[in-house]
Specification:
It is a single chain. The protein is 27% helix and 25% strand. It is built from eleven helices and 19 strands. The radius of gyration is 25 Å and the shape is elongated. It has helices at 30-36, 56-69, 83-93, 108-118, 143-160, 179-182, 232-236, 285-299, 324-336, 362-371, 403-409, and strands at residues 45-50, 74-78, 100-104, 122-126, 163-169, 188-194, 200-208, 216-222, 225-228, 248-255, 258-270, 278-281, 306-312, 344-346, 349-350, 356-357, 376-380, 390-392, 395-400. It binds thymidine-5'-diphosphate and magnesium ion. Magnesium ion (MG) is lined by residues 56-57, 80, 126.
């Protein structure tokens, strides 16, 4: 939110300043509202960026339907698709459209006129790259145009205490005049991710002035549009938890406020010349290299003659240290060709000394694993409020202090079959 431009404002005691809580306008799409921290904020600007074809237009249309149903006046500027296509989509998806205005234009002047005339609570511009400010040079969609259009709309919305949302395309390499250009002009940057050929979509805030940025929204694209996935763990678990395959280990991680179970899959193949390759999808590849080094140096798992590939099932991205232990066990399991015991779930950060470090909210992770029918858990022994050996429902909890200990409990220790061991 903008800081007041009153040059004469004097300093005041912080005691005398009322704490601000933002009004929220929920969209009614639970996963979107979670990422927004409760809903759109009047006077604030949001950009929703994502690759073409992911479902951005569908998401904003559904959100506008929810906002209109809650009594907000909404204006959807459609600069890419004809209004008839938007209407067809709304009818097909059964989106309530009373109170939802649509304007088919790519001209900023026309948008401002309609905005002034109808005074909507919520303005959506789909997309920012296809709207043109006639007072600014450059081609439509150029950085100068995108910046000018955004600036004008943000100022108008702020003055009217309306919420504005820009849809923006980003290319695979994140280039073009997309959300990057807009980042500094708006309050919230949402990224819409996923694979166009699969149904799952992920929503995250890269910047959020009115709430946390760590929340993950999970939605599924289907014949009824985008539907929130309330139980994402079930989507991220690829295999049958009563059987296990070498290289596959389930991790209990935190995604914002939610514990989520994800499956790490690793593959090890003999090196084909050159330095051994390390490839990871769904988490940082540098982390895979580092954890591989720890496995070699601290637990004697020989990896330098093999290439390593690892990914997370379901296409989700995880950036949480609690994933480390699962990556280590998955790599060791793949290298040794030995599966971990079925029904096992793990959580823990792994340090360079081979120690298993504390993770936040361990009991919530264990509760999620117990809910989903897992029977054994490896968690860090140390840390404040660290778990004690025992049971959470049918889940047997084993605290471990080191990678060596974790490998032994997961039956990947020195007694495990396979020749790939060195002395450490
Ligand atoms: P769209 O919202 O147009 O994506 P974007 O604005 O990000 O380019 O939707 C993209 C695709 O989603 C569309 O080509 C087909 C698919 N889709 C569904 O599978 N189900 C639906 O109900 C809708 C509306 C779209
Ligand atoms: Mg679109």
């Amino acid at each position: 939110m903008e800081v007041g431009g009153d040059a004469a404002a004097d300093a005041v005691s912080l005691d005398d300043v009322a704490a601000k809580t933002w009004e929220r306008w929920p969209t009614g799409i639970g996963e979107l509202d979670r990422v927004l921290g409760g809903g759109l904020v009047p006077g604030a600007a949001v950009v929703l960026g994502g690759a073409p074809g992911l479902g951005k237009s569908t998401l904003v249309l559904q959100a506008l339907g929810g906002l209109a149903a809650a009594g907000r006046r909404c204006l959807l500027v459609t600069a890419e698709e004809p209004a008839t296509a938007v209407a067809a989509r709304a009818r097909r998806l059964g989106i309530p459209t009373a109170g939802l205005l649509v304007q088919e234009t790519g001209d900023l002047t026309a948008i401002l006129e309609a905005f002034g005339r109808h005074r909507p609570h919520v303005l959506v511009v789909d997309s920012i790259q296809t709207v043109r400010d006639p007072q600014v040079g450059g081609t439509t969609g150029s950085p100068a145009q995108v910046r000018a259009v955004a600036e004008v709309c943000v100022t108008a919305a702020r003055r009217a205490q309306a919420a504005v949302c820009f849809v923006g395309h980003v290319t695979k390499d994140g280039g073009l005049a997309g959300p990057r250009t807009l980042e500094h002009l708006v309050d919230t940057v949402l990224g819409f991710e996923g694979d166009r050929h699969h149904a799952l979509r992920f929503l995250r805030a890269a910047k959020h002035r009115h709430g946390p940025t760590r929340e993950l929204g999970v939605l599924e694209m289907g014949p009824r549009g985008l539907v929130g996935v309330e139980d994402p763990s079930r989507c991220f678990l690829a295999g049958d938890r009563h059987r296990s395959t070498p290289g596959s280990v389930v991790a209990a991680v935190l995604e914002g406020s939610r514990p989520v179970l994800v499956e790490v899959q690793a593959l090890s193949v003999p090196v084909r010349g050159g330095p051994p390759k390390r490839w990871a999808q769904g988490f940082d590849a540098a982390r895979l290299t580092l954890l591989g080094a720890v496995l070699e140096a601290r637990a004697g798992v020989r990896l330098n003659d093999g290439e390593l590939f690892a990914n997370l099932a379901g296409g989700v991205d995880v950036d949480e240290p609690g994933l480390d232990l699962a990556v280590c066990l998955a790599v060791a399991s793949a290298r040794l060709g030995v599966p971990v015991p079925p029904g096992l779930v793990v959580a823990g950060e792994v340090g360079l000394a081979g120690e298993v470090r504390h993770v936040a909210r361990c009991s919530d992770r264990l509760a999620e694993a117990a809910r989903l029918g897992f029977t054994g858990a490896l968690v860090p022994a140390a840390g404040p409020g660290g778990p004690l050996p025992g049971e959470v429902g049918a889940l047997r909890v084993t605290p471990v202090a080191s990678l060596v200990e974790a490998l032994a409990v997961a039956r990947l220790g020195p007694g495990a079959p396979g020749p790939e061991r060195t002395r450490c």
